[in-house]
Amino acid sequence: MKLPLVFDIKTFAVHDGPGIRTTFFLKGCPLHCKWCQNPESISPAQYLAYNPLLCLRCGACRSVCSKLGEDFMLNQADCTLCGRCVEVCLPAARKFAGRELSPEEVLAQAISDKPFFDSSGGGVTFSGGECALYPDYLKACLSLLKGAGIHTCIDTCGAVPREHFEEILPFVDLFLYDLKKLDPELHREYTGRDNQQILENLRFLCARGKEIIIRVPLIPGYTDSEEDIRAIARFVKEELNGAVRRVELLPYNKLAESKYANNTAYRDGGLRYPLGSLTAQTNEYVASLSRIFEPYGIPSFSEVL
Amino acid sequence: MTNRINELREMFFAATHKAHRVEDSGLSILNETTEKLPFEIRKALAFQKALEVMPIFIQPGELIVGGKTLYRLPTYITEQEKRDGNPNFETKGYSNAFDNTYNLGQDERGFGVADSCIPAYYKVIPMGLPALKEDAEARLKAATDEKSKNYYRSVILSLEGALAFIARYEELVRQTLAHTEEQNRRAELLEMAEGLSQLQQGAPKTYLQATQLMYFIQFLIWTEGGYLIPLGRTDQILYPFYDRDISAGRLTPERALEIMECFFIKLNYEIDRTHGEAGKFESDTGQSITIGGVTRAGEDATNALTYLILDAKCDCRLTDPKVHLRVHRGTPEAVWRKAAYLNSLGMGFPTYENDEALIPAFMSHGDFYTLEDARDYAASGCWEMIIQGRSFNRNIGAIDCLRCLEWALGEGESFLDKPGKDAVGTIDGHYGFPTGKLTWFDSYEKLFNAFKVQMKHCIDMTTSYCNRAMLSPSPFYSAMMEDCLEQGRDFDGGGVRYPETDFQLAALANAADSLYAIKALVYEEKKLTLSQFVEILKNNWEGHEELRQYVLNKLPKFGNDDDRVDLIARDIVEFYVREVRAQRNSFGGPYRARISSALAYVTNSKQLGASADGRRAREFYADNLSPQLGADKNGPTAIIRSCGKLPYGECAGGAVLDMKFHPSALKTEEGRAKFSSMIKTYFALGGLQTQINVLDNKVLLDAKAHPENYRDLIVRVWGFSTYFVSLPEAYQDHIIARSTLA
Questions:
Q1: Which CATH class is domain A5-43+100-256+278-302?
Q2: How far apart are alpha carbons A169 and A167 in whole angstroms?
Q3: ipTM of this model?
Q4: What is the full DSSP assignment across chain A?
Q5: Which residues of B touch A120 (CB under 8 A)?
Q6: Contact B673 A113 (CB under 8 A)
Q7: What is the assigned CATH class of domain A48-95?
Q8: Where in chain A do CATH 3.30.70 domains reside?
Q9: What is the CA radius of gyration of chain B?
């Protein structure tokens, strides 16, 4: 089995499902949302990361790699990912964006955090990128975790073949399922794909009686109009029979903007934030969106309320 | 918050109470006759005299009156006594070399003044001061030895002074009443005057009277000369009064909350004046109250006041009193929820204490404590856990692990500052013990042994100083304790049941990290010799930045659940606890081991050279149980797992883990439930205590730049909450650095 790259592990994760969780972020995503919060996770490929704030300008990296310029950066095509510059970098300013983690290593990390899961009703969450791109890997991890009595959660955008979900279904306790926009054309414009597969998979999971939390990223001007939210409420009510644990509204977080064009060692790498600077919603506005779900009898939740 | 509380709070910030302060009355009680009286009698006379002249005041809207306004007792120590001073001159006050302190306050002879003991409010409030005085009078009659007789006389004089002082306040309230037209206020003033009258006749009859008496005792102890004065299990102490009034329909919960808030605001009047002159920090008052936990019988002790006190802290948003919440398996979820909400407000309240770990830690001291008393523990000044009413707790300074390691690496010499010519307690001009040349340490174990010898040396030196320290009597304060009257002895005579002395342990994480770095580089990888490494440290890493970066980034650090370092920390703690507990103090009581740094992480660290963990000379080291700043790379669960490996079982004094959270984590009820679970997990792993900061570093940076906008921004420092804008810059920066990592 080829292991996907894990680009981050977060312990005491409190926003990724019930209780205290340990979240594994896998690299690679079928969507390219304009507002992506983890731009470094879109490509499944390894790359060389560089944090100039940690860099001592000691030049150790340049002594092992002739491609590096005075800015300690290089062109992506020149990087063979040999890792020598990472090895000599003492302050760890240079590192690989992701690393391979075997299912056994995932389990070991989770077991060490199990006391926290047990006291809080938490567990392990796989996120990304899009973790459901790797059903074999997920199945291996999830079955080990379930064997250890650990609650499991999948944070997914849903844009993967249904077979991927069928593969992991018995080992998942809860799906955190992103619904971004119901209009298929605008969905394509914003994320690179329409939402047909996403909605079908959601209907499928619901029909199979899986526990689901719908998550809606509120992107100002893109997904956060009252009509957007009402359409989602109607969909959940009419097509899913309201059979979700709740709908979570995720207010816009400006933090994402700063992640762009950072953290890469490539002069020609890194993405530009395509949306420009947006203003986060007021709590009052989020509250008004949250109230839209009331007449539909659908529980809604937001961190800011 | 009611209008009244809002206005009283504004008045506090406007500091109207300070207008009544007098530094020195200029009076003396000494004359040819009184000069010959025993010391404690003279002190009681001075206390009495002080209370005759101390300015009294009442402010609009107050329901609780009083406040310390006189800052020196009339002269009662003779010139001869001052000249004689402290016969154990080397035990006077503070010794930088071993970081020893023996209580913060001293009288003019250099004798220590008792503090940090929790008055037996549970006993004296239901009893009332007149009954206490009668008890002392009866005991005086029955007493046979002169020492006891003088003690009882000193207590009676002090209590007479206190009762006369309450009479002055009654008079003032009645005068104010005479000039007040507003009917509601008149009714309040009348109730207050009758309450003050009752406190002179007997025991308090109402919740208001009981609360008023508690405040009187609190600031009268300060007036007598104490410094850090904790309050004990306030929800338990006041509940019978509350319950009676509520049942009788005399009191509503809303009114009870308002009275509690009036009391709490009053407790803040002294925050700028309670610390000794040196190392002055606002709000380091030791005014801790402890709520929740189990009763003396082992049942859950939660009552209506447990919740009410948490509510009052949410409302008042002032530093005092500090709130400690004792928890156990039976603590109601509603208490956890309310407490987490209070935490979310960011002031560092409450601090959490784990009954299931602390009570057994008390019981680990053989038969010293009874189980009922162990269950009656409460917070002393910061997070020192002692028995309310029954402990005479003395804090001595920290055993500084990094300093011990520095001495082991320096043949007993410090890297930086040398002892002056007149330094006391040196060996061949060094403070450290000459444990031998570096070349002798041909194995890690030998170096670790030398390190242990240095620790033992520090413990021995500190103990010997402390056991010879001279103490001053405190007749009024001691009368508020459980056993002094029965014993006929003041604090200095050993009148308190549990005389215990607490050591602290500082820089634990840094010492473990440093020892591991030496072990790895010198003994395992053999990258350099020990002598070379020490030369580099003595030169503050100059020219060896690469090595420093290697140590900082490539070697494991405490706080990441890595046994290579965590087990070194465990070994250090094991040795420390064993050696500390082997000592006995001058009353035959135990020395207890705490793991906490107090303020040493800022003050001591300035005297220390570079350390092998990558720390530069004079830089801060880690506070309390925390990992070194920036060394925790695996998140908070790993910190907790690392700390969970330490042997807390015998640390009755406590061991404090500082936890930091970003406000967003506690914004929702769900988030707060997760936060509470975090604490529960730590306690399930055996953790004793944790103090919490919930801070946004952006807010702190703004507060540093614009202090005028943040007068009530409260943060938790090493062991208490204080106003961020009142802190020296070094502490502000440390808090900012910490919160950035939250």
A1: alpha beta
A2: 6
A3: 0.86
A4: -PPPEEEEEEEEE-SSSSSSEEEEEES--S---TT-S-GGGSS-S--EEE-TTT-----HHHHH-TT--TTS-B-GGG-----HHHHH-TT--EEES-EE--HHHHHHHHHHTHHHHHHHT-EEEEEES-GGG-HHHHHHHHHHHHHTT-EEEEEE---S-HHHHHHHGGG-SEEEEE---S-HHHHHHHHSS-SHHHHHHHHHHHHTT--EEEEEE--TTTT-SHHHHHHHHHHHHHHSTT-SSEEEEE---THHHHHTT-S-SBTT-SPPPTT----PPPHHHHHHHHHTTGGGT--EEETT-
A5: 673-674, 677-678, 680-681
A6: no
A7: alpha beta
A8: 48-95
A9: 26
Cβ-contact A44, A172 below 8 angstroms? no
Q: Which residues of B touch A11 (CB under 8 A)?
A: 634-638
pLDDT in tens, B542-598: 999 989 999 998 999 999 999 999 999 999 999 999 999 999 998 999 999 998 877
User: B-chain residues within 8 Å CB-CB of A299?
Assistant: none
Of A97-106, B92-101, B434-443, B593-602, the least confident: B92-101
- Judging contacts by C-beta atoms under 8 Å, the chain B residues touching residue A115 are 681, 684-685
Residues of chain A with CATH 3.20.20.70: 5-43+100-256+278-302
Tell me: the pLDDT tens digits for B329-346? Answer: 999 999 999 999 999 998
- CA B467 to chain A, closest CA, distance in angstroms equals 44
Task: Give the pLDDT confidence of A159-197 residue by residue, as tens digits.
Answer: 999 999 999 999 999 999 999 999 999 999 999 999 999
Interface of A with B in 80-119 (CB under 8 A): 90-92, 112-113, 115-116, 118-119
List CB contacts of B292: < 8 A, sequence separation 6 or more. Answer: B235, B301, B302, B306, B325, B326, B327, B331, B335
Assigned token pair, A113: 């955090």
C-alpha distance from B550 to closest chain A C-alpha (Å): 5
Average pLDDT for A54-76: 91
Q: Which of residues 116-145 of A touch B (CB under 8 A)?
A: 116, 118-122
By C-alpha distance, the chain B residue nearest A119 is B677
